[in-house]
Automatic annotation (TrEMBL):
The lineage of its organism: Bacteria, Bacillati, Bacillota, Bacilli, Bacillales. InterPro entries: Kinase-like_dom_sf, Meiotic_Drive_Suppr_Kinase. It comes from the Bacteria. This is Serine/threonine protein kinase. Signal peptide: none annotated. It comes from Fictibacillus solisalsi.
Length: 212
């Protein structure tokens, strides 16, 4: 682990991440080899080193004050099958257990069936977090992975925010009202432009609803 922690520090020092819009994922402008970018969220990017396939480094591109809160969230959650684990951290990064699954977002793109067990697993995981005094939010299709028929939440960075969030409830409703009766029975591969249009449309709809 000491070797990996040193590599993670070097990665963080030599990586440039920009955030062009708070509502969109950050962008990785530069990073050293042989690290690979395996995901980008609204706050941070996640990197994988080929020699350490079971670990990832999450580097914050904005909202660095949220890193400490995320560390505390992982400490509070402890070991739970529906969450990753934090093994170390630095000024801008976290070292996390790698979840080798497929996001629900990518499941829709690839036509992979999403079983109902995923929804139940996430519901139970959120209830568990609330029982520990946390406030789960920002749980959506890009933050939930399917692995072996089970659901895993891969981003807990906003679990200290007390602001109400309906993203998971909205996704849950869409699953039972649209996905389960239609796309589960007749899976199709949805192009990323279509999925992105739905994401943007949903964001504008929520803004309009709040303004009303």
């Amino acid at each position: 682990m000491k070797t990996y922690m040193k590599l993670a520090e070097e990665l963080t020092e030599n990586t440039k991440i920009v955030s062009r819009d708070p509502g969109d994922p950050v962008e990785v402008i530069a990073h050293p080899e042989p690290w690979k970018v395996v995901g980008c969220g609204n706050y941070a990017a996640v990197f994988l080193h080929p020699d350490f396939p079971d670990l990832v480094v999450k580097i914050y591109g904005r909202n660095p004050e949220g890193l400490r809160e995320e560390i505390l969230v992982y400490e509070t959650l402890g070991e739970h099958p529906a969450y990753s684990r934090c093994y170390g951290y630095g000024a801008r990064h976290l070292i996390l257990k790698r979840i080798k699954g497929v996001t629900l977002y990518d499941c829709l793109h690839k036509g992979i069936k999403i079983p109902e067990t995923v929804i139940r697993d996430v519901d139970n995981a959120l209830s568990y977090a609330r029982s520990l005094g946390l406030f789960p939010r920002d749980v959506h299709g890009k933050n939930v992975m399917l692995l072996g028929g089970r659901g895993i939440i891969v981003d807990v960075s906003d679990f200290y925010e007390r602001e109400k969030c309906s993203k998971w409830n909205d996704l849950r409703k869409a699953y039972y009202r649209v996905y389960l009766p239609v796309f589960y029975k007749y899976p199709v591969k949805l192009p990323y432009p279509v999925l992105n249009a739905v994401r943007i449309g949903y964001r504008w709809y929520k803004k309009w609803k709040r303004s009303c």
